[in-house]
Amino acid sequence: MPSIPAKRRATYDDVLAAPENMIAEVLNGELMLHPRPAVPHAAAASALSDELGPPFKRGRGGPGGWLILYEPELHLGPEPDILVPDLAGWVRERLPTAPRAAFIALAPDWVCEVLSPSTEDIDRADKLPIYGREKVRHVWLVDPGVRTLEVLRLDGASYRIVATWRKDAVVRAEPFDAIELHLSVLWADVDPEPAGG
Predict the structure, then answer these.
(1) Spatial separation of the C-alpha atoms in residues 14 and 108, rounded to whole Å
(2) Are 114 and 144 in contact (CB under 8 A)?
């Protein structure tokens, strides 16, 4: 009986060879290609970065102490999973400055994934377990389609939902609960919801 050849594990070379218009990730040895985010996705990620940057990166109006990056490439684990979260943050005691490399091999303290219909299942089913394995303490899932923020905290080997807010809520969400975040800012640059939405 002929044997079925083992599927080749994707590598960083596969990421480098990916088309320039795609985001390439390696999750559990499989190459995942995604188109660049749609405008609502990009607008929500940009707005969140704008809100968190001054108080947490710069210490203006907040405690500072964080390095927050937009779409960093992370290489996590011994046969690295290669992930590109929408935003990631490290407390400066662990990562004082951004390295001069193409990627970061130190797991962040916080990640934010902005959910899209084409990637939500990957963010939840594939990326969350990797973040948990690497001890990423907090994960935010932002959904511009239904206008929600879901905050998860690492609890042992998996995540538990700390809170979920929607629409125009004003929140204090860990680990950035030193400031109030107005969720309406995340959707401000996107067309209003359709009637009845």
Answers:
(1) 24
(2) yes
Q: How far apart are CA 70 and CA 125, in angstroms?
A: 22
Q: Structure tokens of 117?
A: 């219909």
Q: Which helix (H) or strand (E) holds 27?
A: strand 22-27
H/E segment holding residue 122: helix 120-122
List the pLDDT tens digit at each of the 197 positions of the chain. Answer: 666 666 789 999 999 999 999 999 999 999 999 998 889 999 999 999 999 999 998 888 889 999 999 999 999 999 999 999 999 999 999 999 989 999 999 999 999 999 999 899 999 999 999 999 999 999 999 999 999 999 999 999 899 999 999 999 999 999 999 999 999 999 998 776 654 44
Ramachandran region of residue 158, left (φ > 0), alpha (ψ -120 to 50) or beta? beta
Distance separating alpha carbons of residues 95 and 67, to the nearest angstrom: 7
Could you give the CA distance from residue 7 to residue 10 in angstroms, rounded to a whole number?
9
Bridge partners of residue 52, in order along the sequence? none
**pTM (2 d.p.):** 0.92
